[in-house]
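Dear support,

I submitted the protein below through the web form. The confirmation email said the job was done, but the results page showed an empty box. After a refresh the structure appeared. I'm attaching both so you can tell me whether what I see now is the final result or a partial one.
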Amino acid sequence: MSDMKNLLAPIGNVPEGKSSGKLAEQRAEYVEMAAEEKALIVETELDKADAEVATDLEQVSAEIENLASSEGASFDLQQVINVWFERAEQKFAAGEVTRRAAVELNIDSAATYGTIPDKIVQMFINSAETKATGMAKLEVAKALDQATGVAGSISKDDNVKAAEIEEKATEILANWGKNASAIDFLFKRLFNKVLNRVLDYQTRLSMIGQDLAKKSVMLDRVSASLRARRDMVKKDLLQTCINGLALEAIIDDTRAELKSLEKELSNAKGADRGPLNELVKDQQAFLQILIKRLIDLKSFAVKEIGLYSIIGTIHASVAVIRADVEFTRTNLIAALGLQLGLVVDIVSALRIAKASQDVRRAEADASASVGVAADALQAAANSALLDVQTTMRSLEATIAAASRGIKNTRDNMDKVEVMQRETEVRLGQLVADLGNA
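What the results page shows now:
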């Protein structure tokens, strides 16, 4: 996986300054570009994670098959300890191998040698933990669905569409001279309608942003759970290696004992051969059980190494998703809320532009009537009207980018859940295959 710092870093810089048409357009371009870039990063990282998980599973399967055919000789447990664990753990393992190798096993006690304690099994398959992490992701997805719904509502609402508002406001202002007081009432009603719609959407976006901030903490818990499970796997890997190495020593002693019995049997004559023959057969059966258990332990060590890597990959995928959620709840929602506020500015700017045009005409008429040339107000308010045009173009782009970004986040969360489910199924099949070996 790529460096998490890069994933969590903001994309580009949000344009700052006073709300003008040009800046609104810059913000729209930023949001659209950043949303697309963020979606691409997330999609790339999750595709890479999916491929890594598939590769790890294939390697685990291949290594287990190799172990079965070589009676475990192809896999060095001591090398695993040397590579995976610190010096203190290596020293602990050496002492434990010596202690456990001295344990007297028989054909019955060999059946339970090296098996995971029931308590550890329950920790591995903690259904309550699985349910909690799954529910956390569903809660985040629910909040994202709400954000998608609000963004969708904004995009379909003519009362906050810049083009629609411009058309209505221009039509009202064009009829100003017919009945100024009545038209002023209509214009104020348009302004209030737009203002109320904008405030409603901004409030809803704010609540969703706050909700996502709380839900993001749930994703932290999912990450913590994955980290804990990964640590648990590594700790048990050490125990598996120790048990396997001790068993190798026990197998060497058992082989030596078998050779001694076979030699004794070859030298025995008459009635003495019967009891010795039974002892040899029992020793052979005992040795076969020990070798089978050694293959099981080495296979489980391979599985745990693969599982450690797979959990790490999925943990990194959750971090990618959390970065995506954080980007959605901050950059996208903030930009969309800001652009909504500019819709109100659109209506005000049109009214200002109309008033300043009227003043300019009236002043020109008055100047002409008294025979004085006046250019004092010639440039007044033109910029406001021009800014409105660019702001209108920016609004639709921002809404579209926000809506796509939110939907991408939801789709990516679905992808991680599918990846986890498929991984669990394939790992479960590996466990079943190992049990049937």
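Response: this is the final, complete result; the empty box was a page-load delay. Confidence is low (pLDDT under 50) at residues 1-15, 372-381.
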